[in-house]
Amino acid sequence: MKMFGLKRIVDEKVDKTVDMASDAVNCLLDTTYKGGLFSMIIVTIVWVSIFLYIAFYYAYMPSLMFSRPIHMQFKSCYSNKGLCDYPSAHVQLTKSHQLLMIGQKYKITVYVELPESPVNEEIGMFMLCVRLSDKFGYLVSSSCRSSRLRYMSQLYRAVHTLFMVPFYLTGLSAEKQLIQLEMYTDFEEDQLHPVTDIYFEMLNHDIQIYSAKINIIANLGGLRYLMFHWPIVSACLGIGSNLLFVFFVFSMSWRHIYGPEVYRSEPNDLLGRTGIGHLDEFDSEDDSEISDDLSKKEFLPYSFSSPSLMIPEQ
Fold first, then answer.
1. pLDDT of res. 259
2. What is the pLDDT of residue 299?
3. Which H/E stretch holds residue 314?
4. Quick one: which of 198, 203, 173 has its CA closest to 67?
5. Are strands 105-115 and 211-218 parallel, antiparallel or unpaired?
6. How is residue 182 annotated by DSSP?
7. Per-run averaged pLDDT (10 residues), the chain, 314 residues
8. Burial bucket for residue 304 (CB in 10 Å: 0-12, 13-18, 19+)
9. In the chain, alpha helices (H)
10. Quick check: helix, strand or coil at residue 161?
11. Residues with Cβ < 8 Å from 14, sequence gap 6 or more?
């Protein structure tokens, strides 16, 4: 008998130890699962926030600058030296899709490289005109600007030439001037007629040109200015805002999916704690009253009713 009792105690302790180990393993697995799921959710939220900010940046920020070369064309005269028409050029920015962003202001500047030749000095003032059109040839806007070579006196020219002789001889520099013509300061794209082609015309027959190019630079302002000049601060604020938004959406989704089950179980618990309990109390009270009545009816002596007393004996 003693051996049987000792074996039973040992078996109980072994079973208890196994149960405790099983509970510990289950708790560890559950904690690991929840921790891994939470980590995956946090990583997903962070990457989604970063992706949303990058997508917003590339959709909201315009290209800072577009640059295109200008190749002037003209018709030569056979009777005498010179040009028979004005030097002109056609630059196609894009074929069909829209290049400039709607609502963004741009500065359009033309750079003309002119030689310091006697002909250009004699010309003096010259005029450059620009016409902007869409792919159907509709004239969106036009602008003309005038300029000339910078004046240099004979003394200044002599000193400058003597100083630059080594660079002229080695080909590192040349006797030329770069003229900057700002055609538009705040040009804004028309949504109905996006600019696809630019036409240039130099209103002078005798002008001599080395090369020309056009630069279209975005005038950033407001949020675009902050995002371009302070990218790290803007990225931190944008990703943080996206984190709050994505976490709020995730919380609402979690509540929408798992909330009704919780809300369905809570009223039942409340009913169990309130209504059903009261009903049980009422039922117990009623049962006690009924049992008291029955006991009274069983143990009280038999009593005649008034109608039975009024019946005469036969």
1. 58
2. 40
3. none
4. 198
5. antiparallel
6. E
7. 65 77 83 82 88 91 90 79 81 84 92 92 91 91 92 88 88 89 92 91 89 93 89 91 86 70 47 46 48 46 42 41
8. exposed
9. 2-60, 118-123, 154-170, 223-229, 231-273, 275-299, 306-309
10. helix
11. none
User: CA angle, corner 166, sides to 165 and 170, nearest 5?
Assistant: 115
Phi and psi at 142, nearest 5°, equal -145, 150
CA distance 241 to 50: 10
pTM: 0.66
Residue 294, beta-bridge partner list: none
- 211: Cβ contacts below 8 Å, ≥ 6 apart: 69, 70, 112, 113
Q: Edge to edge, what strands does the sheet with 176-188 contain?
A: 65-70, 211-218, 105-115, 176-188
**Per-residue tokens: 265:** 């179980």
What Å distances lie between residue 131 and 186, 197, 198, CA to CA?
16, 8, 6
